[in-house]
Each structure stands twice: as C-alpha cells, then as structure tokens.
Amino acid sequence: MSELLSYLIYLLVFIIGSVLGLLISYKKHGEPFVFNNIDIISLIIAIIGWILLFNYGLFSSLFGFIYPEIIISIALFLIALVIGMRPGYGRKETIIAIIISAIIWVIVYLMI
Predict the structure, then answer these.
(1) pLDDT tens figures, 47-80
(2) pTM: predicted TM-score of the whole model, two decimal places
(3) Rg of the chain's alpha carbons, rounded to an integer?
(4) Closest to 14 (Cα-Cα) out of 77, 66, 59
(5) Distance (Å, whole) CA 1 – CA 31
(6) How would you classify residue 50: left for phi > 0, otherwise alpha for psi between -120 and 50, otherwise beta?
(7) 16-47: b or e for each residue (b if 16 or more CB lie within 10 Å)?
C-alpha cells in the first residue's frame, strides 16, 4: 500500500510541476515564437532535478535523515518545471541536463 501511495505522490508532484512550469513559461515568454537560446535558470533546474533523480540512493545514504521518496519527489518536481514549459521551450535544457547527469552518475558509481 505504501508503494502505491509513493507513486501517487510522484504523479501529483510531476503534474503540479508541469502546470507551474507552463504558467511560469507563459509569463516569462509572451512572444508567439521560439527563441533558440538556452535559458540558464531552466538548465540549472533541470540539471539539479536529473542529478537528484539519477543519484537518489546516494543522496539518501549520505543524508540518512532524508527519505528516498522525498528526494525523488523534489527531482520530479524540478524536472517537470522544465519539461512542462511551453512547446518549444525546455527541450534543449532537458537533453543537456540528462547528458550531464548521466555522466555524473557514471563517474560517481565508477568511484564507488
């Protein structure tokens, strides 16, 4: 039963993050076309989110007082903020963040 509750929390956090990302991006980008620039703030948010998601086991073992469910929920919220942006925004930031996070994950787990 607790596993189903965790999945429900993950789903709700992702939906809330997506809606907030959409609202923030519409407020920030009022223009009807897509800029090809990379938004640094969105990139940092995406990198933090993907690093937390890939390495939640490491963070929960380093910080014993933080449950893995909390780390995953924070990660999904941050990821959804960027993925949930207006169409055309956030896709480059997400891809760059996944690549950087995967490289960090490989380096961390090769060192362990």
Answers:
(1) 999 999 999 888 888 888 888 899 999 999 999 9
(2) 0.89
(3) 15
(4) 77
(5) 46
(6) alpha
(7) ebbeebbeebeeebeeeeeeeeebeebbebbb
